[in-house]
Amino acid sequence: MNDRNSGSPLGAEGLIFLVGYMGCGKSTKAKQLAHRLGCSVIDLDTEIVNQSGKTIAEFFATSGESGFRDYESEILKTFSYPEKCVVATGGGLPCFFDNMDWMNANGTTVYLQMEPAQLVSRLQNRQKRPLIKDLDDVQLLDFINEKLTERNPFYTQAKVIVNAFDLDVETLEEAIANTL
Length: 180
Description:
Blueprint: E1 15-19, H1 26-37, E2 40-43, H2 44-52, H3 56-78, E3 85-88, H4 99-106, E4 108-113, H5 116-122, H6 137-155, E5 160-163, H7 169-179
Parallel strand pairs: 1-3, 1-4, 2-3, 4-5
Helix pairs in contact: 1-7, 2-3, 5-6
């Protein structure tokens, strides 16, 4: 692991949390940014699957959204994070309990913002996504608009907000570094 100075995107806190709506690129950008910074990457959805032994869809089916959100919050707050890492969060995680406040207190939060139509174009394979698996494109656009109206008050509490459409990792790193 590279030990960067406090002016780097990892800063003194050591954790970068990527937040945003499903399909905005959190998992992909977390891997790219962690590689660029020479640190670990954690995908909280993957950790939920690993620790629960269920896919996200199975978790929703057996425990409902409220059971999933409880477990997701517990994983966020109790996970043994490496000293320096980039964390990809689930799309809804910042919007429940005090999760956004917790992430802001424990690291640098970055909102990967995208327009609803851009998200629809990215969410063509919906079967693994329990909240949207049965929606056509028109219904999905309406659903995303409604959810972003609900979620943006949480997402916009992030310390860094970037347009994620065609975002390259160098621009992402620079936006984070410039905010610290």
